[in-house]
Design brief:
The chain has about 425 residues and is α/β, with parallel strands linked by helices. Helices cover about 25% and strands about 25% of the residues. It folds into 2 domains: about 100 residues, Sandwich (Immunoglobulin-like), CATH 2.60.40; about 325 residues, Alkaline Phosphatase, subunit A, CATH 3.40.720.10. The strands form 5 sheets. Strands 6-7-5-4-8-2-9-14-3-15 form a 10-stranded mixed β-sheet, with helices on both faces. A hairpin with a 2-residue loop joins strand 16 and strand 17. The protein is globular, with a radius of gyration of 21 Å. Bound molecules: zinc ion. The site of zinc ion has 6 residues, from helix 9.
Length: about 425
């Protein structure tokens, strides 16, 4: 059987039906490039990064940002249980696959207020190392939603306790919010500047807290002083996390983008975009010859109602108009590279990104999906002629209970199966198991 390279396929519409489908691994050597299941998962979040922010960075760079030309990309609809989303609810949606009210950090609200398992915890349970890198307070809403549970994003004691006493990510790099003494007490090696980080023995380090500012880290535009750049924190985190035996999960956030956009400060926003791009490039450099790594780049919402009106060339800030000082409801983007990138495509919701990340760690992607009628989901898989498959489906990707959908024989190099009973399902996952 031929194992296909990750293929992009359309998702069936935000909030309506997000189908994941893949070809179960088997035999024969495939044609390059082929990605394995993702052992290493890296998620970049540009806080407040809409599509026009990407355009603005592109204009200043005079070239596409490193992730813009990746083959897998999607439009992402934002919005929380409160309507217009904040960073806490958006990060919770990405981290847990569940929509919550604004301000909520990975607990079920609406719901029973119980803790929602995050992807960081899920991967930690699989033996992976984990890390959080941010330019925000370490206890900021975005990193918090991946490694803590709190009724409010402002419960910093609860969030700190979640990090240090419970989830204990291997890497905590960012600004303040955690007391250095408390981190040291909890067994973390504590760093306070870029020189200290550069001197870190990444081969032996296991739990490191880089506390590079008292509050949020400075804007790139204003100069970082002794603090490291986002790309330096990313590279250093990868050097530590990459030593784990079972891969890792890393979340990297640029939060200055959101702050600069609230202030409608174009030069700061543009420099944050360049810094964000450099950080993604650092991850790409780390992963470039690997087949076991997924890099996903997205935002949590758009900030500023930004419109780029004029490209003033490389090295110059583009002409822009700001139409808001708050968050807006416009769609944002997601770009994916590497193992399982094919799970990103079409129009997605933030919650779908969670499922795509989990699925990328479990299966290779290799299926084209289309909707024939409102209840008919048609899937075309790649295979070899004469191969027999049992296609199975489940509603839950984290704890799947696979139900058989049918047995199909590939007539040529593809086979198609239709799920005619999709009904009102909001998401469903499929796999094709090769039969002897
Ligand atoms: Zn904001």
């Amino acid at each position: 059987m031929r194992i296909p390279s990750p293929s992009r396929f359309p998702w069936s519409g935000r909030g309506i039906l997000a189908a994941l489908a893949w070809l179960a691994p088997a035999g024969l050597a495939p044609a390059a490039p082929v990605f394995d299941r993702a052992a290493n998962l890296i998620v970049f979040i540009g806080d407040g990064m809409g599509l026009e922010h990407v355009v603005a960075g592109h204009c200043h760079k005079g070239a596409p940002l490193c992730f813009e030309e990746w083959p897998a990309s999607a439009l992402v609809g934002t919005g929380s249980a409160s309507g217009l989303t904040d960073s806490a609810a958006a990060a919770t949606a990405i981290a847990t696959g569940v929509q919550v009210y604004n301000g909520v950090v990975s607990v079920a609200d609406p719901g029973d207020s119980g803790d929602l398992q995050t992807v960081l915890e899920y991967f930690q349970g699989k033996g992976k190392r984990t890390g959080l890198v941010t330019t925000d307070y370490l206890t900021g809403a975005t990193p918090a939603a991946f490694a803590a549970h709190a009724a409010s994003r402002y419960d910093t004691d609860v969030i700190t306790n979640g990090y240090l006493a419970r989830t204990r990510p291997n890497i905590l790099y960012g600004g303040g919010g955690i007391d250095a003494a408390a981190a040291a007490e909890a067994g973390y090696q504590v760093l306070s500047n870029s020189a200290g980080m550069a001197a870190l023995d990444t081969a032996s380090a296991t739990n490191v807290c880089g506390r590079f500012a008292d509050g949020a880290m400075p804007y790139e535009y204003d100069g970082l002083g002794e603090a490291p750049h986002l790309w330096e924190m990313t590279s250093n985190a990868l050097a530590v996390l990459g030593n784990g035996p079972a891969g890792f999960f890393l979340m990297v956030e640029d939060s200055g983008l959101d702050l600069a956009s609230h202030a409608n400060h174009t030069p700061r926003m543009v420099q944050e975009m360049r810094a964000f791009d450099a950080a993604v490039q650092a991850a790409l450099d780390w992963a470039t010859n690997r087949t076991d790594t997924l890099i996903l780049v997205t935002g949590d919402h758009e900030t500023g109602g930004l419109v780029v009106t004029n490209d003033n060339g490389a090295g110059a800030d583009p002409g822009v108009e700001w139409t808001s000082t708050g968050h807006t409801a416009v769609d944002i983007g997601c770009w994916a590279w590497g193992a399982g990138a094919g799970y990103v495509g079409g129009a997605m919701a933030h919650t779908n990104l969670h499922h795509a990340i989990v699925a990328a760690s479990l299966f290779q992607s290799g299926c084209e999906v289309s909707i024939d009628t409102p209840t008919n989901l048609s899937m075309t898989w790649r295979a070899s002629s004469g191969e027999v498959f049992r296609v199975e489906t489940t509603d839950d990707i984290v704890s799947p209970a696979w139900q058989p959908l049918g047995v199909v024989t590939a007539a040529a190099d593809t086979f198609t199966i239709i799920d005619s009973d999709v009904g009102t399902a909001t998401q469903r996952f499929y796999r094709a198991v090769s039969l002897p």
